[in-house]
Amino acid sequence: MLKVTIDNITIDVEEGMTILQAARMIGGKVVPPAMCYYSKLKGTGGKCRTCLVKVAQSSAKDPRPMPKLVASCSTPVQDGMVVQNLTSPEVQEARKGVVEMLLVNHPLDCPVCDQAGECDLQDLSFNYGMEETASEEERREFPVIDIGPFIKLHMNRCILCYRCVYAADQLTSERRHGVMYRGDGSEISTLIANVIDNDFSGNVIDVCPVGALTDKTFRFKSRVWFIKPMDAHRECGRCSGKGTVWMFGNEIYRVTGRKDQYGEVEEFICNECRFEKKELASWTVEGPRKIKRQSVISANHYEKMVQPSIIKPIEGQMIPPQNEL
Amino acid sequence: MGSSILLANIGVPGIRNLKAYRASGGYSAVEKALREMTPAQVAQEVTRSGLRGRGGAGFPTGLKWSFLDRKTDKPRYLVCNADESEPGTFKDRFLMDKIPHLLIEGLILSSYALGVNNCYIYIRGEFKYLVGILEKAIREAHQNRFLGEKILGSDFSLNIFVHPGAGAYICGEETALLESLEGKRGNPRIKPPFPAFKGLYGCPTVVNNVETLATVGPIISMGGEEYAKIGKGKSTGTKLISACGNINNPGVYEIEMGLLLDDFIYSPAYCGGIAKGKKLKAVIPGGSSVPILPADLILRTLNGQKRLMTYESLAEGEFASGTMLGSGGFIVFDEDACIVRNTWNLTRFYRHESCGQCSPCREGTSWMENVLYRLEHGSGKLSDIDLLVRVAKNIEGNTICPLGDAAAWPVASAIRHFRHEFEEHVKNA
Ligand SMILES: Cc1cc2nc3c(=O)[nH]c(=O)nc-3n(C[C@H](O)[C@H](O)[C@H](O)COP(=O)(O)O)c2cc1C
Ligand code: SF4
Ligand code: SF4
Ligand code: FES
Predict the structure, then answer these.
(1) Which of A73, A290, B160, B221 has the smallest number of Cβ neighbours within 10 A?
(2) Which atom of ligand 2 is least distant from the CA of A207?
(3) A201 and A269, same domain (yes or no)
(4) How far apart are CA B28 and CA B18, in angstroms?
(5) Residues B339-427, CATH architecture
(6) Does residue A305 lie within any of the structural domains?
(7) pLDDT at B118 over 70
């Protein structure tokens, strides 16, 4: 076991863990936001840079700080490491800068986006008080395309987190889409139009942190906060059959994986469960899905969201106390 | 200070061919190493020489080699970085073109030291004509038993492969290079793990610059200690400098480290002064990524000392009043040069070359280019100048690979030292 201290809270973690994983063990506000890392997909992380933290002490053996902020999702902990997230104004500043970058080309078309209300970028920009950017430049524009019979791509909204690329690599037999071109001209696309059709391809929608990949069988039927997520299961030969059905009255509007507080699904589900089983009779409903994440859906309205405050470290004292988190 | 080690023999007729190279003493270092030295002794000479990476970062080569994971039973690789795409830098191209066997000899010695049996030269795609030159040199070396199975009757075997890139500056970053060499999209990898543990095909790998590796031959011939006597302090040996811009004699020069910067610019042996009798305005001394300095600060440090061509002297004053030796791409501007236009041009380059993987660099490089385009084309505002400083700061240090920093520094330093020019652009628009 290794000892690591994050925002003055010390815990024991196993060797090989990243700072972000250690922070998630503590939970609460010390957990850095992660837009590209996805614990269930190998190789994700490192790209969005929202999870930057400061390593004030590299390890017990080498007490020097790390020269730059590091991506907590891809930096392994070392014994005696001291990390600052909320307790570092430098980190908060840098993260604000990153969020602003993510918004430079983002259309902020939340009023017409079906991810609104369950969008990680919306939550992030709200938390960092940057609902807009200082950029006056024209935004990149791409046409909306069908990348498969069930999936639509709004490239304008994509933050190039690469999660969908890893998902297609790891969950489907053959990846048919990827990142084309480079720099700010990068885009998610397919070489042949409308080719993504695979038993597990629908999972790219669940892993997408924004409204770039959306479910064509659901689009525009309703805003997510009007419909109720319910945990449900069914007998399925392809996947676990454990999903979340989103209901309005007795109707199922859409089916997704069961997402946890970090926006990650507990288990990936198959396309049949996701796209083809929209009758209540197909499912055994277990009860309302408890969404622990701080988001517009659970808070029901923007005003109720709590802005995280910077906690000032006091020498030798453990703050914030664990029970306040 | 006319020390010439790498380029000493480039004037010999036919030196591109093995015969002439041999006749002027070539491959004697390989013979010496394979017959008289253990791999560890070769590595030790390199450590003793104080040689530092010539690719830009100046990392001590012996130390880098010592990190190579020797505990696994996986194969180890040596990769020669010949992607040279930094604006202003054209020394590796010159070296490979003029004296290709010097590089091949360095690769054989380095591979021997590192226990490598397969070595790759990853060469910039646009250097197509050099691929043939290198492959011919490799063929000749095979025919003369300097490459292949059991070199010169020893137990050591080595093959060298030349692999051209497809036209991306980012593939010069060592981990993007490895991805590209594996046939993948050239995105830099997230470190750790470092190439010394997981490099090419997941195996321990050393990546070194062309000039770094070409220097290993002379180091073995003269001995590390002798090499370390050349140069100044921790900047040992000689360095190739590619000089360009508003000077009388653009070209590639080999200088002994420690040369006065003043001499390099004005001596007829080197740049030969500013072209057309104009005055010096600014210099980017180490390739487009390093900070630009105005004439007074490039010639003398803030505390009045004459600047030398060494890693340390150029860095003196850090970012506030210093710069870096970098890869030795020496770009000189005369009094008529427009710093705003030049800075805009550089941001165009970095915008085009960003791999787009991480958000600060992908969005920040295009944002800076857009703003500088406006400033240069007459629709800028005064507030744009501070905006640029802020965007550059938000990129710097927050990205996956150093391309982000390389894009931010030219903008930040141009505004730091030439803010008035940016302001004039707004006022006179
Ligand atoms: C964007 C970028 C481009 C680079 N291009 C080159 C290059 O063309 N040639 C090179 O030798 N090193 C280049 N480097 C540096 C390499 O990553 C690496 O540090 C170097 O090859 C190590 O060799 P050295 O230790 O011999 O200097 C580049 C780095 C970055 C971040
Ligand atoms: S489409 Fe979504 S999941 Fe894929 S890279 Fe873009 S933002 Fe990430
Ligand atoms: S800094 Fe730029 S070039 Fe380097 S990984 Fe990030 S986006 Fe790619
Ligand atoms: S979550 Fe760590 S960089 Fe994106």
Answers:
(1) A290
(2) 3
(3) no
(4) 12
(5) Up-down Bundle (1.20)
(6) no
(7) yes
Residue A178, burial from CB neighbour count under 10 angstroms (0-12, 13-18, 19+): middle
d(CA A189, CA A178): 6
The number of distinct structural domains making up chain A is 3
- Please tell me the distance in Å from A67's CA to the nearest CA on chain B: 9
Predicted pLDDT at A314: 37
> Strand pairing partners for B207?
B79
Chain A CB contacts of B366 under 8 Å are: 104, 137, 183-184
Encoded tokens for B70 = 């020797």
CA dist., res. B365 & res. B411, Å (int): 10
With bands split at pLDDT 50, 70 and 90, how would you rate the model's confidence at B337? very high
A-chain CB neighbours of B394 within 8 Å are 94, 97-98, 100-101
- Single pTM value for the model: 0.93
Is domain B231-334 in CATH 3.10.20.310, yes or no?
no
Which among A232, A233, A252 is positioned nearest to A241, based on CA atoms? Answer: A233
CATH classification code of B18-228: 3.40.50.11540
Q: Which pLDDT belongs to residue A194?
A: 75
Q: Does B405 touch chain A (CB under 8 A)?
A: no
**Cα-trace Rg, chain A:** 20
Residues A211 and A261 in one domain: no
Q: Residues in chain B, how many?
A: 429
* Mean pLDDT estimate for chain B: 97
B353 touches chain A (CB under 8 A): yes
Element (H, E) at B229: helix B224-229
Euclidean distance between the first and final Cα of chain A, in Å? 24
Task: Please give the average per-residue pLDDT across B199-215, as a whole number.
Answer: 98
Q: What is residue B423's predicted lDDT score, i.e. its pLDDT?
A: 98
> What is the Å distance from ligand 4's center to A33 Cα?
8
pLDDT at A14: 95
Q: What is the mean pLDDT of residues B32-47?
A: 98
Q: Answer whether B280's CB lies under 8 Å from B274's CB.
A: yes
* C-beta B211 within 6 A of ligand 1: no
Hey, which of B185, B289, B401, B405 would you mutate to test ligand 3's pocket, going by the most ligand atoms within 8 Å of its Cβ?
B401
Per-residue model confidence (pLDDT) at position B2: 52
**pLDDT at site B63:** 98
Check if B57 has its Cβ closer than 6 Å to any atom of ligand 1: yes
Of A218 and B318, more confident: B318
Q: Mind listing the pLDDT tens digit for each residue in B386-428?
A: 999 999 999 999 999 999 999 999 999 999 999 999 999 999 9
Do A111 and A203 lie in one domain? The reply is: yes
Judged against a pLDDT cut of 80, whether residue B345 lies above it is answered with yes
Q: In sequence order, which ranges of chain A are alpha helices (DSSP H)?
A: 19-26, 89-104, 120-127, 163-171, 203-207, 271, 296-299
Average pLDDT (B98-127) is: 98
- pLDDT at position A324 is 32
Contact B411, B373 (CB under 8 A): no
State the CB neighbour count (10 A cutoff) for residue B47: 16
Cross-chain residue pair A162–B357, CB shorter than 8 Å: yes
Domain holding A283, by residue range, is: 224-298
Half-sphere exposure at residue A147, Cβ-oriented, CA atoms within 13 angstroms: 28
Structure token pair of residue B238: 């000689």
Assess A92–B contact: CB distance below 8 Å, yes or no. Answer: no
> Among partner residues A52, A135, A183, which is closest to B356 by beta-carbon distance?
A183
**Nearest by CB: A184 against B170, B363, B399:** B363
User: For residue B172, which ligand has an atom nearest its CA?
Assistant: 1
With a cut of 50, list the residues of chain A below it in pLDDT: 294-325
pLDDT tens digits, residue range B238-284?
999 999 999 999 999 999 999 999 999 999 999 999 999 999 999 99
Separation of B79 CA from ligand 1 center, angstroms? 11
Cα–Cα distance for residue pair A203/A164, rounded to 1 Å: 8
